[in-house]
């Protein structure tokens, strides 16, 4: 412990820097907008820089379970990729289905709740509309998301969270009830009672 004690101020500053970012108020690397958004939470873009709304949405095309924070001027407030216009496209490696009417794309996504090992996520999902494409539930499975029903699924679990729970219950006998409680608190530590069951 003595080894750390003499560096206490430095360690404290590094930890407190989590609540701030040295580049707040600066321009995004794209040069078009002020960078107000950052990636935060249990899973995040390592050493991620502040970005503008369009850049942070674009950069998360294949990272739907990252949580986003917005600089309000005085602190970072949690927001979400969905509220910033993010859509998870299925069937084309994350790219929009070419057989979709892009003018209507935003009206045809399905709001889903997807559970991952860092909690629950409200995500707008756009399914593939190509000819002979598999049913929605199979499209989710192909993206490693296990649907809770085979008919018009609106909730799903990532393969990652299923594997995480499997290993946890084997090694620690963690109950499903306790694991669910943990996921709820990871989703919203301040107001876990507001997280949908
Ligand atoms: Zn990220
Ligand atoms: Zn940008
Ligand atoms: Zn398609």
Describe what this molecule looks like in 3D.
The longest helix has 14 residues, at 159-172. The protein is an alpha/beta fold and 197 residues long. The protein is globular. The chain has a five-stranded mixed beta sheet. The protein has a three-stranded antiparallel beta sheet with strand order 1-2-3, with no helix packed on it. 27% of the residues lie in helices and 19% in strands. The model has no long low-confidence stretch (mean pLDDT 90). It has two domains: 9-83, no CATH class; 87-189, no CATH class. One zinc ion (ZN) is lined by residues 91-92, 97, 99, 128-130, 133. Residues 28, 30, 32-33, 51-52, 54-55 line the site of one zinc ion.
Strand content: 15-25%
Uncertain parts: none
Biggest sheet strand order reads 4-6-5-8-7
The SSE string, one letter per element, is: HHEHEEEEEHEEHH
**Mean pLDDT metric:** 90
């Amino acid at each position: 412990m003595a080894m750390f004690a003499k560096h206490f101020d430095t360690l404290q500053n590094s930890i407190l820097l989590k609540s701030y970012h040295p580049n707040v108020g600066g321009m995004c690397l794209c040069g078009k907008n002020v960078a107000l958004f950052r990636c935060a939470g249990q899973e995040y873009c390592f050493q991620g820089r502040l970005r503008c709304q369009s850049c942070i949405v674009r950069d998360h095309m294949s990272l739907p379970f990252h949580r986003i924070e917005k600089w309000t001027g005085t602190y970072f407030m949690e927001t979400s990729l969905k509220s910033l216009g993010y859509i998870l496209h299925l069937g084309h490696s994350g790219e929009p289905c070419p057989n979709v009417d892009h003018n209507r794309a935003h009206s045809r996504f399905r709001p889903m709740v997807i559970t991952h090992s860092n909690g629950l996520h409200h995500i707008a999902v756009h399914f593939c509309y190509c000819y002979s494409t598999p049913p929605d539930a199979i499209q989710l499975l192909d993206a490693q998301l296990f649907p809770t029903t085979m008919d018009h699924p609106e909730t799903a679990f990532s393969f990652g969270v299923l594997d995480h729970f499997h290993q946890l219950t084997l090694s620690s006998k963690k109950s499903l009830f306790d694991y669910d409680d943990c996921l709820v608190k990871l989703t919203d530590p301040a107001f876990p009672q507001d997280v949908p069951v």
